[in-house]
Backbone:
């Protein structure tokens, strides 16, 4: 049985990926410092799959702890989710973001090299493309200057990994996520809301649940069919499954270069108003909203060209926007 380390394995995307890994017969070890997650997720994962993953509460900024962990755990692969991800917060706390997202990445890569562990999957983001000149966005689209320290940590992270693959046996894949949404069909795991949601779907869901009075739709004068911004919303379970495919590619040496990059999206763009309409249709719930000014730093439109991931990974999304929105609502219902 192949052993996989999942850092940030109790977080939103991490927890869904742990479930899919276990479903596919991998033995999973989780590292998570609970900075943006809850220990209860461990029991939730266990109740979905019937298997309790090994868990370590390690802060990956602790270089010595990282060293000791890898000396004792010769894993077959590493999926590295653990990172801070709030765009606004990163502007306020840039150094904390660089220390947490870059420091820990470097420590992990050093220990992979020291222990000759060679299969590494990195959580990247479509934020590296900024407002792309052409849609849909291919992996060859130019990287634009980052809008935030958070975005910069993803760009720098990719560069660091690429450089590391040049001087070691490391094989790595960076997965550039578009907008991950939704929850597991069991409604046992999902995106844990902490404070006022900054992302669209959690805010929509909380407004429908009466926790928030009204959703502000940021910008109605974009150059899009209905004037609201367009994104590629991908179901988190589809996204999770792509990680297993990518990891297998490395373990089985099917990669074509030591460092590869894939977009993970549906290939379909939906506007904010379309999301609200779909949500109302599938849940029968009303979402109060008002049109307000654009949010600083937002782009007009982004959606993935999925051809490369579809052809090369043999992976494609199976779930729809409706599926994702309904699952997000069912998850919210369990939080009452
Ligand atoms: C945001 C981040 C991105 C990050 C991603 C992770 C910014 C500028 N970008 O993407 O770097 O990788 O989250 O999840 O923060 N919207 C509203 N009202 C709301 C919230 C959002 O109208 O209350 C709109 C936004 O203007 C945007 C769309 O909904 O057009 C999606 O927003 P969001 O879910 O925050 O994702 P992104 O901004 O695309």
Residues:
């Amino acid at each position: 049985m192949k052993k996989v380390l999942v850092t940030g394995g109790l977080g939103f995307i991490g927890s869904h990926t742990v479930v899919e890994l276990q479903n596919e017969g991998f033995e999973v070890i989780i590292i998570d410092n609970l900075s943006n997650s809850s220990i209860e997720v461990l029991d939730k994962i266990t109740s979905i799959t019937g298997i309790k993953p090994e868990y370590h509460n390690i802060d990956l900024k602790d270089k010595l702890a990282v060293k000791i962990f890898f000396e004792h755990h010769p894993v077959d692969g590493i999926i590295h989710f653990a990172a801070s991800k709030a765009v606004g917060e990163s502007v306020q706390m840039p150094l904390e973001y660089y220390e947490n997202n870059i420091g820990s990445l470097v420590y992990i890569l050093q220990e992979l090299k020291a222990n000759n562990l060679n299969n590494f999957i990195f959580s990247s983001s479509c934020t590296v493309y900024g407002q792309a000149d052409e849609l849909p966005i291919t992996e060859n689209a130019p990287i634009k200057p980052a809008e935030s320290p958070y975005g910069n940590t993803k760009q720098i992270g990719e560069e660091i990994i690429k450089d590391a693959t040049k001087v070691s046996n490391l094989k790595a894949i960076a997965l550039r996520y578009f907008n991950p949404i939704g929850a597991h069909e069991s409604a046992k795991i999902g995106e844990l809301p902490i404070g006022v949601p900054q992302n669209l779907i959690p805010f929509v869901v909380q407004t429908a649940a009466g926790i928030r009075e009204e959703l502000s739709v940021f910008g109605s004068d974009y150059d899009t069919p209905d004037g609201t911004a367009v994104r590629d919303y991908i179901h988190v379970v589809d996204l999770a499954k792509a990680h297993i495919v990518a990891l297998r590619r490395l373990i089985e040496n099917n990669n074509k270069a030591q460092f590869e990059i894939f977009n993970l999206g549906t290939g379909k763009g939906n506007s904010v108003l379309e999301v609200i309409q779909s949500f109302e249709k599938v849940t029968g719930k009303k979402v109060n909203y008002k049109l307000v000014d654009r949010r600083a730093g937002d782009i007009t439109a982004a959606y993935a060209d999925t051809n490369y991931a579809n052809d090369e990974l043999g992976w494609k999304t199976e779930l729809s926007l409706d599926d994702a929105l309904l699952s997000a609502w069912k998850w919210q219902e369990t939080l009452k």
Q: What stands out?
A: The first helix runs from residue 12 to 23. The pocket of uridine-diphosphate-N-acetylglucosamine is lined by residues 85, 87, 125, 127, 151, 179, 198-200, 203, 215-218, 229, 231, 272, 295, 297-298 (CB under 6 Å).
